[in-house]
Amino acid sequence: MLKHCTVNHLQIGGGAPARLMGVINCSPESFYRDSYIPAGRVHDRALAMRDAGADMIDLGARSTAPGSPPISVDEEAARVDAALSELDGTGITVSVDTRHPEVLAVCLRHDIHAVNDISGLADERYARAVADSGLPVFAMASFKEPGDAVGLAATQKALGMVVSRCARLGIDEYVLDPAIGRWGPGWASEDDWELCRNFSSFLDFGRPVLVAVSRKTFLGDLLGRQPEDRLAGTLALTTMLVAAGAAIVRSHDVAETADLLRVYAKMGEA
Q: Distances from the Cα of 259 to the Cαs of 33, 256, 268, in angstroms?
């Protein structure tokens, strides 16, 4: 049985049902415009996601999509600070999506329960800050930068490096993310499909694995649809990746994905 990760008393992996992580973007630069939640509306959206079936919320304030306009660390910190202020005291389980120790320092003033690092703890300064926080980590396959592990063999190698980094840093509570998605110019859609077809191989590391395919570009390339019209494709693929062993699903569409997971669980009953 895979080792599980515990985030604010929530067990991920290790025989637990597939969990649901709702996405809140506080970045108007996001590739999927409907996912942007401005200050003042974060509280209500997070509660709605929880009521719709989200086990936790992943909150970020900087778009990581290729070609997104850059923002300063100070701007990211200010956005996150405002958003987390709305969630303090709600009891909602929250992970924060950032790569900067200065932003993490601001997050730690609030009620947060995990860190989502798309650079896979590759930056030593940030990795030390994460380790010192004592928080569980969602760690993406990366050699040095997000998306620099292109293809199945490179992704498996990068995930091995992430496992080694966690061991060196003394981080035992973590979830692996194989980095499905077009992270840079070196990626082609077929690279993402290769990772999806071989998703179960990522379980070989003995850790719970996150799936994050919500409305991504490779689905749009196949279907000829913009992000706003990729829900059906997202749900179809998500079903297959949960069947392949995904322990937690990161999704913009909480109610629909919660229904998917309930039906999937029902079909698995003896």
A: 23, 5, 14
Smallest CA-to-CA distance from 161 within 205, 100, 206, 95 is with 205
Tokens of 118: 């798309």
Predicted pLDDT of residue 36: 84
Q: Is the pTM of this model over 0.85?
A: yes
Q: What is the DSSP letter of 228?
A: G
Per DSSP, 36 falls in state B
CA nearest to 43, candidates 87, 89, 11, 102: 87
Nearest-5° angle of CA 130, CA 134, CA 135? 75
What sign does the dihedral 109-115-119-124 (CA atoms) show? positive
When pLDDT is cut at 50, 70 and 90, the band that residue 182 belongs to is confident
pLDDT band for position 30 (50/70/90)? low
**Checking phi first, is residue 120 left (phi over 0); if not, alpha (psi -120 to 50) or beta?**
left
Contacts of residue 56, defined as CB under 8 A and 6 or more positions apart, other chains included, come to 7, 8, 10, 19, 20, 21, 22, 92, 93, 94, 95, 113, 114
Question: Measured between alpha carbons, how far is 191 from 174 in angstroms, rounded to an integer?
Answer: 25
pLDDT per residue as tens digits for the range 52-72: 999 999 999 887 766 677 889
Which tens digits make up the pLDDT trace of 139-150?
999 999 988 999
Average pLDDT over residues 118-127: 96
Structural domains of the chain ordered from first start = 18-263 (3.20.20.20)
Query: d(Cα 194, Cα 184) in Å, to the nearest integer?
Result: 16
| Sign of the C-alpha dihedral computed for residues 85, 87, 88 and 94 taken in this order | negative
CA nearest neighbour of 218 among 98, 65, 59, 68: 65
